[in-house]
């Protein structure tokens, strides 16, 4: 390689090390400028300029910890997931890769969205880097970026994957000898191979032998005294457990209690917290010195890790699982009870709109998990409801975490009832879990939970709770294409609220109804419902609710082709979202800003707003907003003449839209695909895409169809000279009559 023009190491582990900041600093570096001098350029300008320089000048770039730019790592506990579990969940495999561990499997099972970059422009930049000629780029990452893979699972041309396996035999022997432990290579080789050279397990076993009181460091004697030790014939998972179980045998009761306490936490824990829990009379450590010695011993054995900067302690996922499973039930209960007592008095922010991160909720999160571990499900539910629910639902949109917590209230599985003694709490839990399923891309999974919650509320004759659940069910059914049933349950919810004179909930049901009928192409009813809902919220000074309904008005304007009105509404929705700063409100407003800008021909604004929305949506896994952003980005790419990029955006839609299901988004995506195929002269493929769009938009059949997707598909088919598919017409006899409820009650037009 010729003499380098420059070298740059960029760590994505730093707090301010986002991808755009990388672009700013990398471009400034290669241009010999200050970052402020290039910050004002557009993303496209910065990326293109940097790529051009790297194509002609020999630089060496190292992008360290790139997994932090991926969807999978935008969750509270990503760094603490077991390795095998994370690999399986993300399909972290690359066909033909160097050093791929046997435990990772040899076949590629499909590109997984969790390995996508949160900002798709970062993924596009990675693909472009594979074409530069002069520079060399090394990416170190826990997960392989899916953007660098072909559909076959191979690395794309211009790149290659190298999975770092465990220690080689020589390195494993070197580690073993460094801990002053004896043993022949012939005897040790099969042991090392049984755990694929995992350094933590080798260190843990060597440390146990090194501290063996009868014969320190004498492996032959230690093994003779432990005749049951033999991991070599076991599967990998059991081999790991086997070795760690023996490594833990040598710990004193006090050390066992210290490590059991550390692994009981869901997150890394501070020295201060460990001191409060472990120092004192009838506790494992008499004083701070004893705790320090215990922590040092455990760290030397490789059983825990110490983050010196944050002064926090944690355990590797393998150690976590084995230590906790080997602890007796009484020991587990004792540790959890101590944690519950410690965290019980700690408060979370009283105003959920002021919460900035899940870290601020850590005491409540840890206590929730200890209560679950103690089997105190009712207490856990109340803690969630009172201290976690609003901040995680509204402010942070932390739906991955909510799902994990709430599913633990169903110890017999989500299909069984939650383990709660009060029926009202059970209904609340069903609704809360359904909401997070819905927002995370599974309305089909959410609908049955809403149905069970509605049955619960109806059985208890709780009209207010029933109306709330029905409203959520109506919105969920709209997304999954059950238009006729959606209107039925929304009308029923309106009847209940008007009987109870609960105007706030009634206004919510009106905007859901307005959104539904806008999708059906009903101009008058959608306008009436949305505007009346907005007036009701304005009258009550409900700013956050105004943000929601104004975003729906922007969506309606886009559907009806009024881009200018959509721009005004979307900008107002963005402004209103700033009052309470709820994450979903910002994302929805940004999506509509991008859609409106595209409609007005402001392509640069559209690109910035859509990528902003998509990055935030992926960070919190709000799939229902991610999909329209992707479809609109595909339209934008096509408007710029880049059919290849348009296809890439659509490729990110198909699986999630089908899994949802989201027939509305499927119809939109297939219509864009039909347009791409027509532009490229692929008539049969265009007909097939338009036909699929037609079928997806059909829903229950007109008038209960997605009007806009159906009309676009009809237009494609007509222009292509193809027939429309023959689908079953809507059969009213299969449904109960709709409740008769006007949008604006007589004499109430002023709200």
Overview of the molecule:
There is one protein chain. The protein is mostly helical. It contains 34 helices and six strands. The chain has helices spanning 19-31, 35-38, 43-56, 83-90, 120-129, 169-178, 185-194, 199-210, 219-224, 236-249, 253-264, 271-278, 288-300, 317-326, 329-343, 362-373, 377-395, 399-407, 423-439, 443-459, 463-479, 483-500, 503-519, 523-539, 543-559, 563-580, 583-599, 603-620, 623-639, 643-651, 654-659, 663-679, 683-698, 707-719, and strands at 6-11, 59-64, 136-140, 269-270, 305-307, 312-314. The strands form two sheets. The protein has a three-stranded parallel β-sheet, covered by helices on one side. The longest helix is centred in the middle third of the chain and has 19 residues, at 377-395. The N and C termini lie far apart (75 Å).
How far is the first residue's CA from the last residue's CA? Answer: 75 Å
Shape: globular
| Biggest β-sheet strands, sense, barrel | 3 strands, parallel
What are the segments in which pLDDT stays under 50 over at least 5 consecutive residues? 102-111
The percent of residues in helical segments reads 55-70%
Radius of gyration: 29 Å
Task: Please give the order of strands in the largest beta sheet.
Answer: 1-2-3
From the helix content, strand content and strand pairing, which structural class follows?
Answer: mainly alpha
Number of H/I helices: 34
> Mean of residue pLDDT?
91
The percent range for strand residues is under 5%
Number of strands: 6
């Amino acid at each position: 390689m010729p003499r380098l023009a420059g070298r740059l190491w960029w760590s994505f582990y730093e707090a301010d090390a986002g991808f755009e900041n990388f672009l700013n600093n990398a471009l400034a570096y290669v241009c010999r400028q200050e970052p402020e001098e290039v910050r004002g350029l557009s993303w496209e300008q910065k990326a293109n300029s940097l790529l051009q320089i790297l194509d002609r000048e020999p630089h060496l770039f190292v992008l360290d910890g790139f997994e932090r730019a991926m969807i999978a790592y935008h969750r509270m506990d990503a760094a603490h997931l077991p390795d095998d579990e994370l690999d399986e969940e993300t399909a972290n495999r690359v066909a033909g890769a160097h050093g791929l561990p046997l435990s990772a499997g040899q076949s590629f099972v499909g590109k997984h969205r969790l390995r996508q970059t949160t900002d798709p422009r970062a993924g596009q930049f990675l693909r472009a880097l594979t074409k530069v000629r002069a520079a060399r780029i090394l990416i170190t990452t826990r997960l392989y970026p899916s953007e660098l893979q072909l559909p076959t699972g191979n690395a794309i041309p211009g790149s290659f994957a190298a999975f770092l396996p465990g220690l080689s035999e020589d390195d494993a022997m070197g580690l073993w000898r460094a801990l002053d432990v004896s043993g022949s290579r012939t005897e040790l080789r099969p042991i090392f191979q049984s755990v694929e050279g995992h350094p933590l397990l080798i260190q843990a076993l060597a440390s146990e032998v090194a501290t063996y009181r009868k014969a320190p460091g004498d492996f032959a004697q230690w093994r003779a005294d432990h005749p049951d030790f033999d991991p070599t014939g076991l599967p990998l998972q059991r081999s790991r457990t086997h070795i760690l179980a023996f490594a833990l045998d040598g710990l004193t009761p006090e050390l066992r209690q210290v490590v059991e306490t550390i692994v009981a936490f869901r997150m890394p824990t501070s020295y201060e917290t460990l001191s409060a829990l472990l120092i004192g009379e009838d506790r494992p450590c008499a004083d701070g010195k004893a705790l320090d010695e215990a922590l040092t011993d455990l760290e030397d054995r490789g059983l825990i890790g110490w983050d010196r900067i944050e002064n926090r302690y944690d355990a590797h996922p393998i150690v976590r699982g084995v230590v906790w499973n080997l602890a007796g039930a009484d020991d587990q209960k004792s540790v959890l009870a101590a944690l519950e007592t410690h965290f019980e008095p700690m408060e979370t922010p009283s105003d959920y709109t002021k919460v900035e991160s899940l870290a601020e909720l850590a005491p409540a999160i840890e206590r929730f998990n200890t209560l679950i571990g103690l089997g105190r499900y009712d207490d856990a539910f109340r803690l969630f409801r009172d201290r976690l629910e609003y901040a995680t639902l509204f402010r942070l949109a932390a739906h991955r975490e909510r799902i994990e917590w709430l599913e633990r209230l169903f110890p017999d599985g989500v299909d069984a009832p939650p383990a709660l003694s009060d029926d009202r709490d059970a209904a609340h839990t069903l609704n809360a879990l359904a909401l997070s399923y819905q927002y995370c891309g599974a309305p089909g999974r959410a609908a049955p939970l809403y149905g069970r919650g509605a049955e619960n509320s109806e059985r208890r004759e709780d009209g207010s709770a029933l109306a709330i659940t029905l409203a959520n069910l109506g919105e969920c059914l709209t997304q999954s294409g059950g238009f006729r049933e959606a209107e039925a349950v929304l009308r029923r919810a309106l009847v209940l609220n008007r009987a109870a004179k609960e105007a706030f909930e009634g206004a919510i049901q009106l905007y859901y109804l307005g959104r539904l009928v806008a999708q059906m192409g009903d101009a008058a009813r959608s306008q009436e419902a949305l505007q009346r809902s907005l007036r009701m919220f304005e009258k009550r000074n409900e700013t956050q609710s105004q943000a929601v309904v104004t975003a729906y008005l922007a969506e309606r304007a886009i559907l009806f082709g009024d881009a200018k009105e959509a721009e005004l509404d979307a900008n107002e929705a963005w402004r209103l979202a700033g009052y309470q700063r709820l994450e979903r409100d910002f994302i929805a407003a940004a999506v509509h800003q991008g859609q409106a800008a595209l409609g007005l021909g402001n392509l640069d604004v559209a690109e910035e707003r859509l990528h902003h929305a998509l990055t935030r949506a992926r960070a919190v896994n709000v799939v229902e907003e991610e999909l329209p952003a992707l479809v609109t980005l595909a339209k934008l790419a096509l408007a710029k003449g880049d059919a290849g990029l348009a296809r890439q955006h659509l490729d990110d839609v198909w699986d999630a839209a089908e899994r949802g299901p989201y027939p509305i988004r499927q119809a939109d995506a297939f219509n864009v695909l039909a347009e791409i195929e027509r532009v490229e002269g692929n008539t049969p493929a265009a007909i097939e895409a338009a036909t699929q769009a037609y079928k997806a938009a059909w829903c229950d059949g007109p008038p209960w169809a997605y009007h806009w997707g159906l009309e676009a598909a009809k237009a494609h088919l007509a222009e292509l000279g193809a027939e429309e598919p023959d689908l079953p017409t809507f059969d009213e006899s299969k449904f109960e009559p709709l409740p008769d409820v006007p949008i604006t009650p007589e004499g109430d037009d002023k709200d």
